C-alpha cells in the first residue's frame, strides 16, 4: 500500500476512494483500509474516502466463473438500526483521520446503489430523514457536516413501485451534495462504449451524452479491495444543478499520459 500511495502522490493523484462494504452484521473486506492504508507510514501524502458498496454480495461474484450459480451470501439491505451503527462507525473510526478526504471541511461519503439505499428505509422521506440524521451525527461529533455523494447509474425504483423514477429529482429530494458514476458500462450499450473507448476518451464522453462537465472537486481514482475492473473512464449523465464528479477507474491501460492530453 505504501508503494501505491507513493506512486499516486508522485503523479498528482489527490485521493483514493475505497469500495467499502458493511452489511447488517458488520464490515466486510475492510482490511485493505484498516491494515493497509491506515497502517502505511506515508498515508499523509494522499487522502482517502469511502464509497459504500451497498449491493448484494453473491457467491462467485469475483472472480466469476461463467455459468456458475450466484446465490446471495450477504444481502445489501440493512435495517435503519444497522445504518445508524454504520454512521457511528465511519464518523468515529475514519472521518476523524487527518487523511480522510474532505470537501469544504466536510467528509466525503458516497452511496453506490440508490435503490438499495431506499430499500433500507422504505420511502424517499424516510431515506432523507436517515441521511439528515447521518449529517447531524457528524455535526455532533464536531464536524461541519458531510459531503454526501450519489453514484448515478441505471434507473432507481422506489420501494413498492415498478416504474423507474427521475434520477435527478431523486438525488435532489434526498439532499445529495454531488453525483458521480462508477463505470461507463452502467450507462451505454457495450458495443458503442467499446467503439468510443478505442477512439478516445473524448469520444466516449460524447457517447455518454455528457457535453460540459461540472466538477466540484478534483478527478479521483477509485481503488477496490479486489482487482481492477475492465472500466476505463466514466462520468455522470444526470443533468441537474448538482455538481458531477468524474470518475477514472485505474487499469493496466489507464496511464496519465493516455488521458491528460485529450482531456484539456
Give a brief outline of the structure.
The chain has 264 residues and is of the alpha/beta class. The protein has helices at 2-10, 31-37, 80-95, 114-121, 124-140, 167-173, 190-199, 201-208, 256-259, and strands at residues 15-23, 26-28, 47-52, 57-58, 72-74, 102-103, 106-111, 147-151, 178-180, 220-223, 233-234, 244-245, 247-248.
Describe this structure as you would to a colleague.
By secondary structure, this protein is an alpha/beta fold. It has helices spanning 2-10, 31-37, 80-95, 114-121, 124-140, 167-173, 190-199, 201-208, 256-259, and strands at 15-23, 26-28, 47-52, 57-58, 72-74, 102-103, 106-111, 147-151, 178-180, 220-223, 233-234, 244-245, 247-248. Strands 1, 2, 3, 6, 7, 8, 9, 10, 11, 12 and 13 form an 11-stranded mixed sheet that branches. The chain has a two-stranded antiparallel ribbon with strand order 4-5. Helix 7 packs antiparallel against helix 8. The radius of gyration is 18 Å and the shape is globular. The relative contact order is 0.13. Mean pLDDT is 74; it is low at 207-264.
Please give a handful of descriptors for the protein shown.
alpha/beta; 264 residues; two-stranded antiparallel ribbon
The first-to-last residue Cα distance is 30 Å
Given helix and strand content, the structural type is alpha/beta
SS field, number of helical segments: 9
Portion in strands: 15-25%
Rg over CA atoms, rounded to whole Å, is 18 Å
* Shape type: globular
Number-wise, the strands total 13
Low-confidence stretches: 207-264
| Helical fraction | 25-40%
Can you give the mean pLDDT?
74
> Biggest sheet: strands, sense, closure?
11 strands, mixed
What's the assembly state of these chains? Answer: single chain
Element pattern in H and E = HEEHEEEHEEHHEHEHHEEEEH
